[in-house]
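Box 3.1. Reading complex inputs
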Amino acid sequence: MATRQLTETGSLRHLIRLKGLDRAFITRLLDQAEAYQTPMGEPPARDQVLKGRTVANLFFEPSTRTRASFELAAKRLSADVLNLDVNMSSRIKGESLIDTIYTLQAMQVDIFVVRDAGAGIPDFITANVHPHVSVLNAGESNISHPTQGLLDLLTIRQNKNTLDGLVVTVIGDIAHSRVTRSLSEGLAIMGRNELRLVSPEGLEPDMDLYPGVRFSRDIDAALKGADVIMALRIQRERIKEQSSLLTNPEYLQRYGLTESRVQLAKPDVIVMHPGPMNRDVEIAGAVADGPHSVITQQVNNGLAVRMAVLAAVMESRQS
Amino acid sequence: MATRQLTETGSLRHLIRLKGLDRAFITRLLDQAEAYQTPMGEPPARDQVLKGRTVANLFFEPSTRTRASFELAAKRLSADVLNLDVNMSSRIKGESLIDTIYTLQAMQVDIFVVRDAGAGIPDFITANVHPHVSVLNAGESNISHPTQGLLDLLTIRQNKNTLDGLVVTVIGDIAHSRVTRSLSEGLAIMGRNELRLVSPEGLEPDMDLYPGVRFSRDIDAALKGADVIMALRIQRERIKEQSSLLTNPEYLQRYGLTESRVQLAKPDVIVMHPGPMNRDVEIAGAVADGPHSVITQQVNNGLAVRMAVLAAVMESRQS
Amino acid sequence: MATRQLTETGSLRHLIRLKGLDRAFITRLLDQAEAYQTPMGEPPARDQVLKGRTVANLFFEPSTRTRASFELAAKRLSADVLNLDVNMSSRIKGESLIDTIYTLQAMQVDIFVVRDAGAGIPDFITANVHPHVSVLNAGESNISHPTQGLLDLLTIRQNKNTLDGLVVTVIGDIAHSRVTRSLSEGLAIMGRNELRLVSPEGLEPDMDLYPGVRFSRDIDAALKGADVIMALRIQRERIKEQSSLLTNPEYLQRYGLTESRVQLAKPDVIVMHPGPMNRDVEIAGAVADGPHSVITQQVNNGLAVRMAVLAAVMESRQS
């Protein structure tokens, strides 16, 4: 029951996953995102494309950065924004998700931005909304985080001038990583790239989800020749059995991204992290702040990508 | 110490209860609400009438739908909106309600939208604000919820083309229902309607509050010939002694609105619910989603009614 | 490592403390604040000076009034406002403060409004932001609250027509009072004023922080001849050892500002309180609502002062 994301004329109605979009479509989204960027210190780009429209941020998981990014993206496109911290209100009264959606839809909300720890929630919502409503997945279980995937692609493209023929190494808590899933989908669409996954014991992914991708336990080998390194956050809040490993000060040395490990990659490697970071756990502070790091560029790209996606779904309604 | 709701020239200064308003006045409010409605899928109506004005949502009880409805109503009228979750801040510092009101008034808040579990809070506030400040009751104990009453009247009028000569049956947790109180006041003002109340044991209303209204325990008899059915939410959070009844799966069969019970009413009966619903407790999911249901229309009307009320109190200041 | 608050051309880049600003500069800020005031009942002043800019309210301590005041100030200057209740989200994921700042900065936030119980947090942030970002201190431990200081100066000036040669008596919980610190700095800059501090046992200040200021335990003597009285809130949430004193009904009589104590001051004395008040604890309700009270004027001035400060830091970027 995967959602049909495009309209019959090929414009974006929902964004639930990158899989199913084609290279030309993603390229246009990334181009539009770049068109929304301005140099740091100058006023951010603004557009009237969502003027009079309403965007509802339905965050069933706590989030500062993604919620803030979508909120500012919508406001800079002139939308009215409704923030709903759903834990705090409806759910204590026992209302079902679908009735919350029906209610907001009846208030003429145009776009739902949804984050939920449950798998399938965004697809469930898209299957139940009116034809004029769009749903954007802002993080779904360990399954999908498509705007993160797009911002990662944009960051790589800006630094490597290509999205083809690259070696991309992801290290860390891959088992819980929707970020890796979306990046993997995006890289496969955009070119012939080599994705390498490395994780500590207990945090390895189900490799059936990553056809054609190499898994390794040897972090040093996996970093050799990498064009891009993505270090992942240890998601303590999702790990039920807390292994002693995860709070061990040795973690960084054994599994984290240290300065000496960065040296194993290509000289012009870029270092990414989806944030929020546990400094000196999965990534050394010196790496996060070092010359290879493009972590704040990712954040800036995230806002631009979300503006591009919001604008795209609004355009799909006018066609 | 009931609040004087109208100015000397007959325009709306505060909205605390429907009682005391007359038929012509409510008709004008409902007409204005309809003027603010647009077809689903089209952009919502917008107006500049609150431009530069400030609306403060003071919700001392958690609420998603009513708060969101007032917030969007105010934004679509171009107001600045301040959301205050008062539990989280002032109250922990021991500030009295009246000082919170004085403070916000000194920040030039124009309209307070107040929800509180305590009886008399809205009247207390209206007795203490400056002549240029308006107070809207967004839910007061089990006493009053006037914008809900207006949206219910509008929904009935749109479906029955009249607010006179109707049989309206309310079933469920009437003891805790400010919704029923406001509907009762509204129906009495608008015409000669027959209101019937039915509730399970332990949830019956104080009938002194409903002069001339019939109470019954026989749900099937009370539904016979109804033009309108309103099913009420079991307000678990307000019920101190949790009777086993309330979580019993038999509740729907014994006291809830099932498809077969709907058949007892008139063929063109409409089914309403103020939300949030406990599906398959007080109302069958199939009824909520069925052909008689006007529940999402209520939500849409709620936003329009709140725009009309906000616009009306702002106009009262200019006269 | 005190922050450099002014740019090389003398305009305001950050506002962390009043100390270091000069009389002419503060006078201009107060004048600008007054220019933003309108009579009660008329629409508040509006300005386009922050149009397209983003203000982030980073409140690590709960606050209704200061957060609301900054939020409305920013909105009335046409800014986009992002409210971040940081306890609720980032911190549970273990992100460091500096990464939260880097993240928001990468989203092109222009101005951070920061409140934190920790000492040195605002200076730490100013030391780490880009040249185009400004930081406003909205309350720092028991150290500084500069916009409160400015609003208190403005309130005194409006009532006394001078900020020189005044006797100002502060009574109450001075140990925890950033309000007193900022007022002390402001009074010293603006003229030759006499500041007198009085507090109950256990709540006295470290007088090394108040050079040249007189501390007393004799509240009646300290009030004699006062032009201005500031009563402070007992900050129960900051007091670790709850002495029986603080909840004692005798507190008001022994240490609070009663009507008879107000009589000891000059006949035209003004009574101030930074709020939120514990009525009939540190201040009698009759004093708070009495003819000498300028407490709601303080609130109104607070909003105007914050507009002036926001406008000033934005101007500093254009020069």
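In summary: The first helix of chain C runs from residue 23 to 35.
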